[in-house]
Every structure is written in C-alpha cells, then in structure tokens.
Design a protein that fits this description.
Helices cover 10% and strands 32% of the residues. With 343 residues, it is mainly beta. The chain folds into 2 domains: 113 residues, Umud Fragment, subunit A; 143 residues, Sandwich (Jelly Rolls), CATH 2.60.120. The strands form 5 sheets. It has a 6-stranded antiparallel β-sheet. Strands 20-19-4-3-21 form a 5-stranded antiparallel β-sheet. A 4-stranded antiparallel β-sheet has the order 7-6-5-18, with no helix packed on it. Strand 11 and strand 12 form a beta hairpin. The radius of gyration is 25 Å and the shape is globular.
Length: 343
C-alpha cells in the first residue's frame, strides 16, 4: 500500500514562495527593460521624456555583436547609463572629416533606414503646428536653391550653441498616382541634386516615396511604394523620410567633386510630362515635399578629430552632435560598457 504524507505548513509556504521567486526571475530575464530619455543628445529621434525599451530577453544583449549605427544603452566610467549610437567598431581608425564619419580613411554611407532615424527635416521647411508638412501640395514641380542649411535642432536650451552649415542635404517627396496609368510608363518622376538627375517610372496606382540628395560624399536616391493607409501614416513621427525606407539606396554615386563651399546643393523634384493619349493619362501630383539634412558631426572641443580603437573598444556618438557628450569627450569605451540595444 502506498501512503501520502501531508506537507507541513512551512513547507507549503516555502514551495509557494519558491514558485513566485522563480516566476519573477523568469519574467525579469524575458521582459524588456525600459529607460527614460534625459537630455537632447539623441535628438531628433529621441527627445527628453521619451521612454525606450530593450527587446525581449534583454540578457541576450550581453552576447550580441554591436553593429555600426545601432543605438545602445551603455554605462560610462562612473556607471551612469546613457544612450548613444555605436559608430566605431573594435580595431578601426575613426575620423570626423567635414562633418562626416570616416572609417579607415573611407567615409561611411548611411542607408535610407538609418538616415530616417538620424536625420532631420530642414527647419525652414517645417510647417506650422497642426498642419501637414506640405510644400507645393498638388504640384508637379518643387525646387530649393543652393544655400546654407544649419544644424539647428530646435530644442530648449540649445539657443547658445553655435550653428554650423550642413552640406549633406536632400529632398523627400510623396507622389500620388490616383488611377491606373495604363500600359506604358506614363508617370515619370525626376529628382535633381546639383547637376545629377535620377528618373523613375511609376507603372501602378498608389503613393510613392521619392528621396534623393547629397549624403556622405555621394549622390544618393531611392524610391519605394508607400504602405496603404491614411495620409498621416506616410511620415512617421520625427522621421525625416517617408515610411518604409529600405535598407540600401537604389542609386549611390560618388559626388562629382568635393565642393569648395559648405552650402547645401540645389534640389528639385518634378513629374515629367508624358503623352496622355497613348496611355490614358494619369493625373499624378506631388502631395508633399520637404528637405532633409544629415547629422553634422563635430570634432572634440580641443580639436581632436581622429581616434584609433583597440581590439575591445567602441566609439559612440550622439545624433545631436552639438549638444552631446560622447566618445569625443570620454574617449573610446570598452565593449563591456554596452548594456542593452534599443529596439
């Protein structure tokens, strides 16, 4: 005969406490960790008061290999957690040249997806509060002359910062093709960056993003269909590009020559007329258009602009270079200072 001996009260309580403790440990290992953003160093993508999170199972970040331009929470020498972007990887020689980042002597080109979270709409092109960011809504042509564009992130307390011109400037436009253009390439969109022009043929009904500009020593351009939805979904909050930016540029050509001036290039986007009789004619329009600018990185306060990283060191920078304390001030940081990747 098999007998069962009842557990004593303290044993039952201990068992329940062990289950609760184990559940808490598991939840702590699985649940994302939240951080509140303080300061403007990662503007415009992250502003004071924002809350960011790691991914599920945050402990796995300790085993992750950092990639260039990922945002991480890291610990400084005194243990203070900060959010920065990984720019230099172990063993690399990093330099800030004319506002761009060069790795081992070559300027690093950001893809459209990275630019979308790091760049900013040009302040002069920003609409009034509560209105859509439309410049020439319904037009077939928009243009901006060459001239000065400043790294003027408009944050409280930033008014005393000396603004500098940004050369890496481009355009973004949303083109609407409201009805089928027929069998031929009726709708052609041309973007011009200084003397370089890129043309796309739109063969289907829908709304398209068109982006072009000067970026990291190249002429870049890309176009992609926007996801279906309301017009307000076309431009994510604080992004300088329309939604759905791809990982890579469709066009990335060397800039024809290094400019002797820091002025931004002249830009234009237009719908090229095509014969309507042969293809039924599509009444395409430019719904929205604006300029974007890239980050202009600044050297350290003492003028230092080049660093050599050790085999276990990283170089991190803030997106708002004029208002950030980062590796330009602290120097390279050990890989072990990384805590959690921001998703």
């Amino acid at each position: 005969m098999t007998c069962a001996r009842p557990l004593r009260r303290w044993q039952r309580r201990f068992g329940r406490a062990a289950v609760v403790l184990l559940a808490g440990i598991v939840a702590g290992l699985l649940w994302p960790i939240q951080y509140a953003v303080e300061g403007p160093s990662m503007a415009p993508g992250l502003l004071p008061g924002d809350v960011v999170r790691s991914g599920l199972l945050p402990i796995r970040d300790r085993l992750a290999v950092p990639r260039r331009f990922d945002r991480w929470v890291l610990a400084t020498a005194d243990g203070t957690p900060v959010i920065k972007r990984v720019v230099g990887l172990p063993g690399e020689a990093i330099a800030i040249v004319a506002g761009d980042v060069a790795i081992d002597g070559e300027t690093v080109l950001k893809g459209p997806r990275r630019l979308a979270e790091m760049g900013s709409p040009v302040a002069a092109d920003r609409p009034a509060a509560g209105s859509e960011p439309t410049i020439g809504s319904g037009r077939t042509h928009c243009s901006w002359p060459a001239g000065d564009v400043l790294d003027d992130e408009p944050l409280a307390g930033a008014g005393s910062i000396l603004l500098l011109p940004v050369r890496d400037v481009g355009l973004a436009a949303i083109v609407h093709v409201p009805r089928p253009p027929g069998t031929g390439p009726v709708v052609r969109v041309r973007a011009r960056v200084a003397e370089t022009a890129v043309t796309w043929r739109l063969r289907s009904t829908g709304r398209y993003a068109v982006v072009a500009g000067r970026l990291d020593g190249r002429v870049v351009a890309a176009a992609w269909p926007l996801p279906a939805g309301r017009r307000g979904d076309s431009c994510p909050p604080r992004s300088c590009l329309p939604a759905g930016a791809p990982e890579r540029w469709g066009v990335a050509l060397p800039w024809p020559e290094e400019p002797s001036t820091e002025a931004a290039p002249d830009l234009a986007v237009e719908l090229v007329p095509a014969p309507r009789a042969a293809a039924g004619g599509a009444d395409a329009t430019i719904e929205q258009a604006w300029r974007w600018r890239d980050v202009r990185y600044r050297p350290a306060a003492d003028g230092t602009a080049a660093w050599r990283l050790g085999p276990e060191e990283l170089f991190v920078l803030g997106d708002f270079s004029a208002g950030s304390r980062d590796s330009r001030h602290w120097g390279p940081l050990p890989v072990g200072s990384l805590r959690h990747k921001i998703r």
